[in-house]
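Go through the following before class.
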Amino acid sequence: MDLTQIIVTVLGLALIGAILLFFFGPRQAVVAGETAAGPQEVEILVQGGYSPAVVKAKRGRPLRLRFNRQEEAGCSDVVVFPDFGIRRDLPAFRTTLVELVPDRTGEFTFVCGMNMLRGKIIVTD
């Protein structure tokens, strides 16, 4: 191997590592804030993924998730909560409200219609 091949190989491995870290690395959880009326509430930006992708909420309390979709990519036009039987269309450049009441503790995923974008709700007592 000459020097050029070594450099290309090292840069390729570094790029693969960065991509893996971006898609599969740890995510910072956001605790759902309480509104004056009582429900827990979080705004989630939909733009190439969900941000935040992890939401912490309390069991038995209404949870409002405001999905602010700022793109036209076909993958993100639907959000699905399999554990709650919820499926909502997310129109481009609009905010869509999803309300649910988590009645048990655990981790519950939400995904796009193509199952490529992923997020989760962590429900605690």
